[in-house]
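S1.2 Input.
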Amino acid sequence: MKTKLFTLLFIAAAVFTACQSNKKHNYMVTIETTMGNIVVKLYDETPKHRDNFVKLAKEGTYEGTLFHRVIKDFMIQAGDPDSRTATKGQMLGSGDVGYTIPAEFVYPQLFHKKGALSAARMGDNVNPDKESSGCQFYIVTGKVYDEETLLSMEANKNNMNAKINSLFYSLAGEHRDEIQKMQQANDTAGLQKLQDKLEAEAKKKAAKMPEFKFTPEQIKAYTTVGGTPHLDNEYTVFGEIVEGMDVVEKIQEVETNSQDRPEEDVKIIKVTVSE
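S1.3 Output.
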């Protein structure tokens, strides 16, 4: 009887643990700014980004930081810790918290429609795995596209040469240190051999890639509310605005300098989390 009881308890504990790990959090985050409040829903489908954003918010990491990069009809970006003490006109965007987050592409379900919350990251040449910044994020404003333009984007993404080139540069990024050493040693034979190898690998991978096609949901969103479709499957989308899009609109209208930093600081006062 005791053995049976222990077995039942073990099964019950396992079921409870599984249920806990699959629990929906439904986190809502309020970003209080000097231009008004923005309320964001964080997606449970991207748990690493969700949990990291909640952690930083609760630690006060974002308090006093700026929307340091604002591009009308594209996006507004924030989260650089260095912006908290930045002087007027100082270039920003390279600050971090000492770590990155693995990409969590849930595509095509989560995409760059207007109001999407996404993670910023370093470029493919130094970041072939498209890992996200540990702290910097952006909110999509974007623009409205017609179906003809979206069809043209589909064709470009399905172009075999474009696929091969994209894959080649991504693979080259993974061998960046090796390439630099060969360049320093003037090892042209080694560079040519590596190039041939990566080109062959890129062609092989490109041939296996499925055809790219926008979903009906994407087409509806991009032709009505708008967004930034060229960022899809390149940057992790991990939430969306549920209130305060008018505040985002006001922020994207501010005057900026040549580095896209607002001339007058737009500051995050506080970030609070509710569930």
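S1.4 Remarks. Residues 23 and 44 are 9 Å apart (CA to CA).
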